[in-house]
UniProtKB/TrEMBL annotation:
UniProt xrefs under PANTHER family: CONSERVED TRANSMEMBRANE PROTEIN-RELATED, INTEGRAL MEMBRANE PROTEIN-RELATED
Residue stretches in coiled coil: 201-228
Organism: Streptomyces fuscus
Subcellular localization, as worded in the UniProt entry: Cell membrane
Transmembrane segments: 67-96, 229-248, 254-279
Domain Type II secretion system protein GspF: 120-241
Domain of life, source organism: Bacteria
Keywords in alphabetical order: Cell membrane, Coiled coil, Membrane, Transmembrane, Transmembrane helix
Entry protein name: Type II secretion system F family protein
Topology of the protein relative to the lipid bilayer: Multi-pass membrane protein
C-alpha cells in the first residue's frame, strides 16, 4: 500500500507539473494561435507543430530558469515512483534563484562599468570640442548612461552650479560605478587648479579600460576550471543513465532501499559541498 501511495503521489506531482506547463488559459492561447496565423476560422484546427512551439515559447517566457528544477523533479518522481525528487526540486528552487539573481547583478555591474568608461571618453571629447565642463557633462551623460540611478542628481548639480564632484562621488557607490570617484577627482582638480580636464579623463579612461581587460582575461583563464568543476558535478547523472541502460534500475535502489537512501543523502551532501568549494575558489581568484 505504501508503494501504491507513493506512486499515486508522484503521478499527481507529474500531472501538476504538466498542467503548469500547459497553462490554464488554453482558450486564450488557442485564440492567439488563430490570430497569429496558426489557423484560420473555418479552416480546421491549427497545425500541432505550431501549437507545440507556442506552448514551449509560453513556458519559456512564463517560467524562470529555477522552476525547471521542479519540473525535472516531478518527472523523476514519476519515473522513480517517489516524491523525494519532487521535494529535492522544490528545495533547489530558492538556491537556483539566488544563483540567477547573482548572475544578473554581476552583469549589471559590468554594464555599469562599461558605461562609466564610455562616459569618460564622451566627456573628454565634448571638452576638447570647446564646451565647458558642466555643459559637456549635460551632453555626454544621457548618451552613455554611466551615472545610473544617480543621473538626475548629477545633471541637476551640473545644470545649476551645484557640487558636481560630490554628486559623482555619491553616484560611485553603485556597484560597478567606482570609476566615477576618479571622474570626481579629475573634475575637482580641473575646477580648483585649472588643470586640463580632458587629459585627466583620457588617463582615467585608459586605467579603467586596462582594469576591465585584466578582469576579462582572468575570467577567461578561470572559465576552464569552472567548466571542469561543473562537468565533474554532472558525472553522477551520467552514472544513473548508464545504470538505467544496463538494467540496474538505479532509481529504485536509491529511492526505495535504506542503503540507497543513505548513499543518496551522503552523495548529495558531498556533491553540494564540492561544487560550493570549487566555485568559492574560482570567485576568490576573480576577486584578487
Amino acid at each position: 500500500m505504501g508503494d501504491v501511495g507513493m506512486s499515486g503521489a508522484a503521478a499527481c506531482a507529474g500531472a501538476a507539473a504538466l498542467w503548469l506547463l500547459s497553462g490554464r488559459n488554453a482558450g486564450v492561447r488557442r485564440a492567439r494561435l488563430l490570430l497569429a496565423g496558426g489557423g484560420a476560422v473555418g479552416a480546421g484546427p491549427p497545425d500541432w507543430r505550431a501549437a507545440a512551439v507556442g506552448r514551449v515559447r509560453w513556458a519559456r517566457g512564463r517560467l524562470r530558469g529555477e522552476w525547471w528544477a521542479t519540473v525535472g523533479g516531478a518527472l523523476l518522481a514519476v519515473l522513480g515512483a517517489s516524491v523525494l525528487p519532487l521535494v529535492a526540486g522544490a528545495v533547489a528552487v530558492p538556491l537556483l534563484r539566488r544563483v540567477r539573481v547573482a548572475g544578473q547583478a554581476r552583469g549589471a555591474r559590468e554594464r555599469r562599468g562599461d558605461a562609466v568608461i564610455a562616459l569618460c571618453a564622451a566627456l573628454a571629447g565634448e571638452v576638447r570640442a570647446g564646451r565647458q565642463p558642466g555643459e559637456a557633462l549635460l551632453v555626454a551623460a544621457p548618451d552613455s548612461g554611466g551615472l545610473g540611478d544617480a543621473q538626475a542628481a548629477v545633471l541637476a548639480a551640473a545644470r545649476f552650479g551645484g557640487d558636481v564632484p560630490g554628486a559623482l562621488a555619491a553616484a560611485a557607490r553603485q556597484p560597478g560605478a567606482e570609476g566615477l570617484r576618479g571622474l570626481a577627482a579629475c573634475w575637482r582638480v580641473a575646477v580648483d587648479q585649472g588643470a586640463g580636464l580632458a587629459d585627466g579623463l583620457d588617463r582615467l579612461e585608459a586605467a579603467l579600460r586596462a582594469e576591465r581587460d585584466q578582469r576579462a582575461d582572468l575570467r577567461a583563464q578561470l572559465a576552464g576550471a569552472k567548466s571542469t568543476a561543473l562537468m565533474l558535478a554532472g558525472l553522477p547523472v551520467l552514472g544513473l543513465l548508464l545504470g538505467a541502460v544496463m538494467g540496474a534500475d538505479p532509481l529504485r535502489v536509491l529511492l526505495h532501499t535504506g542503503a540507497g537512501l543513505g548513499c543518496l543523502v551522503a552523495g548529495g551532501v558531498l556533491e553540494g559541498l564540492g561544487v560550493w568549494w570549487a566555485l568559492r575558489i574560482v570567485r576568490g581568484a576573480e576577486a584578487v
